[in-house]
Amino acid sequence: MGASHVEILARQGATVVFGDVDVDAGRDAEDRLRDNGLDVRFQRLDVASSQDWTDVVHVVREAGGLHVLINNAGVVDTRGAEDTGEGDWARVIDVNQKGVYLALRTLVPVIRDSGGGSIVNVSSVYGLVGAVGYIAYTASKGAVTLMTKSAAATYGPDGIRVNSIHPGAIQTPMLEHELAGLPAGARDGFLEATPLRRFGDPAEVSACVLFLASDESSFVTGAELVVDGGLIAAR
To answer: Cβ distance 128 to 167 under 8 Å?
Structure first.
């Protein structure tokens, strides 16, 4: 979904600095978007690395400051506690939870110095409800949900809004990876459990990111925006 978020913000006239641990994919996205006249810049970023976040600070300050931060990086693991090794647990927590913590610790001062702004943390429906298996994933995304509320309360006086988005089944490579780790029939099960009877499109999540990033949501902070086709409502 990250590339979709970058594009929708850039098409609104934003200068977008975006990061990914996959340098080749990041450079390809940068070239494609620049070829379409969009003002974007790729920076190699491992979200679990404090040094990489420090490097990002230099880049965004050179770009003129920071008003919007989107924390979108994530990995999924469908296994329960008995089947999840400590290394697998650490990987999910490092990317999904520690990455958000490092982003806040490193970039909130830049947003404050820029006059305030908006932070959007991409959590998940599994940051709101439990699931069979998914022990590391639900732990990490549930943490993001409450980290968002804590940050909203802490940084509101600085003019910084912080909200979370909770996607359901969105048609992405990550969803395909997730389905591959589940029993046969999981795809149909997701569709049957979703009242709209389809998977979401990344652009539909990006539209919600844009709303929370913009002044259209100027009195919204500490909120959970669910984008799941009705999945949670039907539970």
So the answer is: no
| Domain assignment of residue 19, yes or no | no
- Domain range for residue 115? 67-227
| Single-letter amino acid code for the residue at 190 | F
Q: CB within 8 A of 62, min separation 6: which ones?
A: none
**Interaxial angle between packed helices 99-113 and 50-62, expressed in degrees from 0 to 180 and rounded to the nearest 10:** 30
0.90 exceeded by the pTM?
A: yes
Q: For 131-153, how does the pLDDT look when each residue is reduced to its tens digit (9 = 90+)?
A: 999 999 999 999 999 999 999 99
The residue annotated as part of the active site, out of 101, 126, 134, 137, is 137
Is-catalytic flag, 137? yes
Tokens at 143, concatenated? 């943490």
Q: Are 111 and 160 in contact (CB under 8 A)?
A: yes
Domain CATH number, residue 83: 3.40.50.720
Q: What is the per-residue burial (b if ≥16 Cβ within 10 Å, else e) of 37-55?
A: ebebbbbebbbbbeebbee
